[in-house]
Amino acid sequence: MCGITGWVDWTRDLREQRPVISDMTRTQAPRGPDAEGVWLSAHAAFGHRRLSVIDIEGGRQPMLRTGRRGEQAVITFSGEIYNFQELRAELRSAGWTFDTRSDTEVLLVAYLEWGPDFVHRLNGMFAFALWDDRLRRLLLVRDRLGIKPLYYAALGDGIVFGSEPKALLAHPEMAAEVDLEGIAELMVVPRAKTPGHAVYRGMREVRPGHLVVADASGHQERRYWQLEARPHTKDFRATTDDVRALLTDIVDRQLVADVPVGTLLSGGIDSSAITAMAARRVGGGLTSHSVSVPAPASPGSDAWRPSPDEPYAKLVAERLGLKHHVTEVGTGDLVQGVELGLRARDLPGWGDLDTSMYHLFRSVREQCTVALSGESADEMFGGYAWQIDERFVRHTSFPWMYARRQPQHLLRDEIRRAIRPEEYEAERYRQALDEVPRLDGEDPVRRRQREVFHLGLTRWLGALLDRKDRMSMAVGLEVRVPFADHRLAEYLFNVPAELKAHGGIEKALLRRATADLLPEEIVNRPKSAYPASQDPGYVAAMQDLVLGLLDEPDAPLFALMDREKVRTAVTSELDTLPGPITARTSAIGLSYLLELNRWLTGVRVVA
Questions:
Q1: Does the pTM of the predicted model rise above 0.90?
Q2: Most buried residue, 14, 201, 267, 343, by CB count within 10 Å?
Q3: Is pLDDT at 577 greater than 50 in this prediction?
Q4: Strand positions, DSSP E, 358-444
C-alpha cells in the first residue's frame, strides 16, 4: 500500500522537471512513510511513496524492468496482488526470471509477457501506472471494486495522475476549481460516489474495473471487468459451502505479509468471521482492535446501534486467544479533529465518523502495519435496511435516499436553480440502472434485487471504501477488505435475496457459513453500525461552531448556502426534531457544513 503520482507529456522533455514531480510525490508521504522514489525520462515522470509490506528490501519503486527484446516498462504501484505467487510461477515456466520477491515485479513481467490484458489475471486491491517506453504508452489501472483510488487529469499534451487529488493539485499548472456539476455531486449524493467523478473540475477518478490507455493521440477509459447475470440453482446449504470455501481462500491470501498483521474487530458477524478465519490460519500472534466513542445515556436507545461493541469484541478475542486493543476517542478528540477527515479526503466528509476512524487507525498502526477489515460484508450479504425494507427497495431513486435529507435543502435559491438537484439525482440514477446486467426471464422482484445489489456495489460501497482508504493511509496503515474480493461479488450478485436472508434472518448466509468458528452470541447478534458519538456535548459543540460561521460576513460557505436557512436549521430544527437518530443526522450535517466551509477557502467555484 503506497502513494503514487506522475506526469506524462508527449511533447515536453520532463527530465528537467524533478522539482515538480518531487512536490507531487511529497503530498503522498503519509500513504508511504518508509521510502520515496522518483523516476524521470524524456516524456514520463513517476513518483512513489512506499509503505513496505512485502519484500521490504527488494520492492522499491518506481520499478523498471527490461523485456526479452530490450523493451522497457516502468511502474508505480499502490496495493497488493494476492495471487502474485501463482502468477510468478506461471511466468517462470514461460522462461522469465525474477530479481525480487515483490508483487510489483510480477506486475511488470506480466505486462511484458501478456500486454494490457494481464489485468484480467489479477486478484487484489490495486491502482498503478505503467509506462511502456517503446510504445510511449501509459496505462492507468484500478482494481475491480475500487478499493484503491487513482485520479487523473488531462494537462496540455499529457496527463497527470495520483492516488489522491492533492497530488495532482501540487502540479503548478493544475487549479483547484469546482464547477456546478461538482457542487451538485457534493450536495445531491454526498453519502455515495458517482464512479469516475472527482468533484474537482477537469479531474476524473479511474472507474473501478477500468483502465486508461493514453498515448500521443489521446486517452480513453476502457472497462475490463463487470458483473455478469447468471442463474443460481443451488440450495441454501450448497450456497453456504461455496461461500465458506471462497472466504477461506480469500482470507488465506490476504494474510500474506512480511510485517505484523492485525484485524479490526467490532464483535459483529462481519469482522468476527474475518478475525476467526485469520486466527485459525496464523494463531495467537494476531492482534485485534476496536474503537470506543461516547455512548448514549440510555443503552439501546440508538436503533442503528442497539448494542455496544466492546463486550462482543472482547468475547471473540478471548475465545480466539488474541490480544485485543480498544482505542478510546473522547468528545474533545472529535471536536478538535473536525478537519482531520478533510485533510485526508481532499473533500468534505463524515465528521466524527471520519475522526474516530482516523484515531482508531493511528492506534492500530502502533501495533501492526496491515489490518483486515469486515468492510463490504453488508453490501455483499444484505445487511442494510435499504436492501431489505420494501419502503427503501421500492423507492424510485437510490434506495438509501428514501426519507433522507441532503444538504441541498440549505442551498441558496440561485445555486439550487443552477444545479437542479432533482434532475441531477434522477440522471445519476438512470445512468446507474443502465449499467445493471440483466437475466432474461427474471421476474420483477428478482430484477429489483439485482438492481439494489449493483447500486450498492457501484455507488454506496465506493464511498465507504474511499473513507477507509483515506483514513488508513493518512496514518500509513494498510487495511485489507476480504469481503471486497471480486470473486465473492461475482458469486453473490447471482444469489437471490431469500437465500442471503434464509429463514428471515439478516445475513443468514454469512452467519451459517462461519457459525462453527464463533460463539453463538456473535452468530446471533443483530447488526450494529460503526460507532458514532451520542454525546449531546458533541452535537452542541458542532452547533456552536456553525453559529460562529453565521457571524462571519465573508465565510465561503455562504457563497453556496443560504445564511438564513442554515441559521434556522441550527437554532430551530435541531431542538425540535426528536430522537437520537435525528441528532446523529444533524451532527453529521453540521460537521459537513464546517468541512465544506474550510474546503471552499482553498477552492475556486466557477460557473
A1: yes
A2: 267
A3: no
A4: 370-372
Grid coordinates of 490? 461475482
Cβ(598)–Cβ(351) under 8 Å? no
* Residues 164, 268 within the same domain: no
Q: Is 368 a catalytic residue?
A: no
For residue 194, give the C-alpha cell. Answer: 458517482
Return the pLDDT at 301.
52
- Which listed residue (2, 45, 186, 489) is catalytic? 2
- What pLDDT sits at residue 360? 96
Return the minimum-mean-pLDDT range out of 108-117, 316-325, 338-347: 338-347
Total number of domains in the chain? 2
- Which residue, 523, 551, 580, sits at the end of a domain? 523
d(Cα 222, Cα 597) in Å, to the nearest integer? 36
Does 285 fall in a domain? yes
Q: Give me 32's grid cell.
A: 508511504
Same domain, residue pair 219 and 261: no
Residue 64 has pLDDT above 70, yes or no: yes
The grid coordinates of residue 554 equal: 465573508
Residue 124 shares a structural domain with residue 258? no
What is the rounded distance in angstroms from the CA atom of residue 604 to the CA atom of residue 201? 10
Asked whether the beta carbons of 113 and 96 are under 8 A apart, the reply is yes
CA pair distance 287, 149, nearest whole angstrom = 27
Could you say which of 489, 523, 557 is where a domain stops?
A: 523
- Average predicted confidence (pLDDT) for the chain: 92
Tell me the residue type at 21. Answer: I
